[in-house]
Amino acid sequence: MSPSRALKIFFRRMFCLGPAKLCPLASVRILLCRLMGIQIGSDVYIGFHVELDTNFSELIEIGDHVTISHRCTIVSHMATSVATPLQRLYPPSAAPVRICDGAWLCVGAILLPGVTVGENAVVAAGAVVDRDVPANTLVAGVPARPVKTLSL
Ligand SMILES: CC(C)(COP(=O)(O)OP(=O)(O)OC[C@H]1O[C@@H](n2cnc3c(N)ncnc32)[C@H](O)[C@@H]1OP(=O)(O)O)[C@@H](O)C(=O)NCCC(=O)NCCS
Questions:
Q1: Separation in Å, CA 105 to CA 3, 82, 138
Q2: How far apart are alpha carbons 73 and 112 in whole angstroms?
Q3: Ligand 1 centre and the CA of 24: distance in Å?
Q4: Is 115 exposed, middle or buried (0-12, 13-18, 19+ CB in 10 A)?
Q5: Going by CA atoms, what residue is nearest to atom 47 of ligand 1?
Q6: 2 burial class (0-12, 13-18, 19+ CB within 10 angstroms)?
Q7: Residue 1 scores a pLDDT above 90
Q8: How many Cβ atoms from other residues are within 10 Å of residue 14's Cβ?
Q9: How many angstroms separate the CA atoms of 54 and 124, rounded?
């Protein structure tokens, strides 16, 4: 990793994500997440202790009127951090994560790299999303699977 990239990641962790996890002001949490390079629409709520990918923050896109509840985790890359034969099986990769307008991630939801959560979809508490979530759909469980269509 180049020194400038390492510095960027350090800045995101130390001065953006760290404070954002605990800051009592919701608007400041959003500002700090934007400073990380995350694309965030209007009227968005991000709760406390939310884990957001600091290596590829710019691959996270959050639409308008989205709620991200406490302790959610959104990762946009995968890589083992040390040399291991597993790297042949799981080479480093990154993929965009999109959360469309009106969606709600309930407390503790986890989004894996490359997924899109559709408009007005709900990810239930504790769910692990490993594939796209259709619009107007509640998904739940590990792995997250559709539970019902939401009539809006
Ligand atoms: C998703 C949620 C809002 C429930 O929505 P709902 O439309 O009322 O869903 P229901 O209660 O009708 O549940 C539908 C099915 O999904 C299941 N389900 C609901 N939440 C689930 C979860 N977190 N994990 C696994 N299954 C879940 C229910 O057991 C039910 O299954 P069944 O049909 O076999 O009985 C709620 O479960 C949830 O996750 N709340 C978290 C709230 C939160 O994050 N608060 C933080 C502050 S914003």
A1: 35, 31, 10
A2: 8
A3: 27
A4: buried
A5: 69
A6: exposed
A7: no
A8: 11
A9: 24
Whether 143 and 130 have beta carbons less than 8 Å apart is answered as yes
Burial 44-80 (b: 16+ CB within 10 A, else e): bebbeebebbbbbbebbbbbebbbbbebbbbbbbbee
Tens digit of each residue's pLDDT (9 = 90 or more) over 44-57 = 999 999 999 999 99
Residue listed under structure tokens 């995350």: 38
Backbone angles phi, psi at 97, to 5 degrees: -120, 125
Task: Determine if ligand 1 sits within 6 Å of the CB of residue 128.
Answer: no
Ligand 1: nearest atom to the Cα of 70: 46
Q: Give the predicted TM-score (pTM) of the model.
A: 0.96
Q: Is the CB of 107 under 6 A from ligand 1?
A: yes
Matching residue, tokens 């508490």:
125
Alpha-helix residue ranges (DSSP H) falling in 12-132: 18-22, 26-35, 86-89
Q: Whose CA is nearest to atom 6 of ligand 1?
A: 138
Ligand 1 contact, 138 CB (< 6 A): yes
Among protein residues, the one whose CA lies closest to atom 20 of ligand 1: 124
